[in-house]
Amino acid sequence: MTENEISRVVVDAAFKLHTELGPGLLESVYEVLLVRELELRGLAVVRQKPVAFEYRGMRFDEGFRADLMINDLVLIELKSVEQLHPVHKKQLKTYLKLTNCRLGLLINFGAVLIKDGIHRVVLGLPEEKPLRLGDFA
To answer: What percent of the chain stands above pLDDT 70?
Structure first.
């Protein structure tokens, strides 16, 4: 699966999870449930993946932990807060640089409407060809 195909599955799973449970639970609860939902959909998910990186020739074995890594291609950063701040997207962009991933999703389960809580962060991923009506024939 491509990064974009994976992201569609993740967004659908997050939407269904949020629709059933709503906002207000701890981030860790949404994380566990989203992992299970994604595994049921056939994705390989690593939770709280330690990420090593190098800086000026020094290696750091655990610079941070990625909330979710999907199929070793897509990084997911989860939140359960009333409002996201610009630093959250910046954080995810830095994580993408350090993991060499090209696509990340910032998902805030604390949003009243989950569509307002899902943000796509791209780093070097080519744009997809837009779908046209004739593509479905």
So the answer is: 92
